[in-house]
Amino acid sequence: MKKIQYTGIVDAVAALCLKAAYDLPEDVLEVITDSLEKETSARGKSFIQQYIENAAIARRERMPICQDTGFAVYFVKLGEEVKIEGGSLNGAITEGTARGYREGYLRCSIVNDPLFKRKNTGDNTPPVIHIELVPGDKLLVTLAPKGGGSENMSALKMFAPSAGKNGVIDFVVNTVVNAGGNPCPPTVVGVGIGGTFEKVAYLAKKALLRKIGEHNADPEYAKLETEILEKINASGVGPQGLGGDITAFAVHVEYFPCHIASLPVAVNLNCHAARHAEFEM
Questions:
Q1: Mind listing the pLDDT tens digit for each residue in 162-194?
Q2: Which residues, at least 6 apart from 272, have a Cβ–Cβ distance to it below 8 Å?
Q3: Mean pLDDT of all residues in the chain?
């Protein structure tokens, strides 16, 4: 049994909050840079150049890439041979989030009551924590801060199986096109297919963690990703929704078995600054 100290997790999570806010992942920066050559719209090129400059300033000056530093969403792989000493895993991640957002002067965007009081919690907690138990003695924590602008453009539909492939494609493409400039395109498009109502939304968000442009291992789903991406980019929405060739950088599909009577589909968008960071213990 491997023992991991509560305080060590708190420290690592606090640092993770700053890294995710300040440092754009290399795969994201690479696809943004590559898109500068592919985009033919002068206005679109100008936006992409600003994205590159903004990322450089954020990394150099240690300041947030975006003023919306997002809902703190964690994907955790917890080894079955790991024991947390001194407190709970949820408690450590929550405390680390509060400390990271306070010490980094990151904007706190979470309200305690979604409908009535809507009072800011003051430290960007509680976070959303997805825990997956896995074999082994490692703890892997991935943070994917989720801004309101892109999150608000999410969509979910419980199709009948008869909708088929074309129904799925039309739903995803229309969701992205109708979002326009709200999610700050070019976006990364996470698509969940299958499972249940709650599982398919999780799949769509988890899909956003994949390295940009890395296809699903199943050839049929990989082909589906390519087909959807081509249709999205043929829409002309373009960078910031003001026209151009590149509306999305990638489409990532994750799937799960489902009921014989159902075909759940969910779409979750990330803006061009697809922030995420991780640590392992």
A1: 999 999 999 999 999 999 999 999 999 999 999
A2: 28, 32, 51, 184, 185, 186, 187, 239, 249
A3: 97
Tell me the CA end-to-end span of the chain in Å, nearest whole number.
13
In DSSP notation, 142-197 reads EE--B-HHHHTT-EEEEE-GGGHHHHHHHHHHHHHHHHTTTT-SSEEEEEEEEE-H
- Could you tell me the fold of the domain covering 148-274? 60s Ribosomal Protein L30; Chain: A; (3.30.1330)
Backbone dihedral angles phi then psi of residue 266, each to the nearest 5 degrees = -130, 150
Domain extent listing, the chain: 2-19+65-145, 148-274
Partners of residue 269 on adjacent β-strands: 189
Cα angle 31-265-235, degrees, rounded to a multiple of 5: 45
Cα 194 to Cα 281: distance, rounded to the nearest angstrom:
32
pLDDT tens-digit series, residues 249-276:
999 999 999 999 999 999 999 999 999 9
Find, among 132, 111, 130, 108, the residue nearest to 120 by Cα.
Answer: 111
pTM of the predicted protein model: 0.95
* Cα distance between residue 14 and residue 94, in whole Å: 9
**Which residue is it, tokens 């000493």?**
85
Number of H helices, E strands in the chain: 8, 10
